[in-house]
Amino acid sequence: QVQLVESGGGLVQAGGSLRLSCAASGRAFSYYSMGWFRQAPGKEREFVAAITWSSGSTYYVDSVKGRFTISRDNAKNTVYLQMNSLKPEDTAIYYCAARLTTIKTMASAYDYWGQGTQVTVSS
């Protein structure tokens, strides 16, 4: 069982930056691949980024490549999403999620979810 708690969301102007954190509790966090998803009002939950348990591989949706960076610190049981050059279309609730073994981009493939943190980017 893994419990996830996101933090770091807020209101920022376009072009600004935020760093989201996802703190995990429970056993064997280091064995889980971690993903970030987001959901805007009236839209489906969308994959943003993911990282393998060893940090050996990362994967991003095209719309955030070059702007967002996912990383993790297994000693702190925490995964991060550094978001730079934010755009109004990045506005959404951001969720972190965990699954054993490989990276997946489908939300249904993840077993554990946090409660989400709101990111609002003003133009």
User: How does the helix and strand content classify structurally?
Assistant: mainly beta
Distance between the termini: 40 Å
Order of helices and strands: EEEEEEEEEEE
What is the gyration radius calculated from CA atoms? 13 Å
% residues in beta strands? over 45%
Sheet of most strands: 7 strands, mixed
Outline: globular
Percent helix: under 10%
Poorly predicted tracts of residues: none
Give the tally of β-strands. Answer: 11
Number of helices: 0
> On the 0-100 scale, what is the average pLDDT?
94
Q: What are the SSEs and their pairings?
A:
Blueprint: E1 2-7, E2 10-13, E3 18-26, E4 32-39, E5 46-51, E6 58-60, E7 68-73, E8 78-83, E9 92-100, E10 112-113, E11 117-122
Parallel strand pairs: 2-11
Antiparallel strand pairs: 1-3, 3-8, 4-5, 4-9, 5-6, 7-8, 9-10, 9-11
What's the short version?
The protein has 123 residues and is mainly beta.
Description:
It contains no helices and eleven strands. It has strands spanning 2-7, 10-13, 18-26, 32-39, 46-51, 58-60, 68-73, 78-83, 92-100, 112-113, 117-122. It is globular and about 40 Å long.
List the main descriptive attributes of the protein structure presented here.
single chain, 123 residues, mainly beta, seven-stranded mixed sheet, four-stranded antiparallel sheet, 11 strands, 0% helix, 53% strand
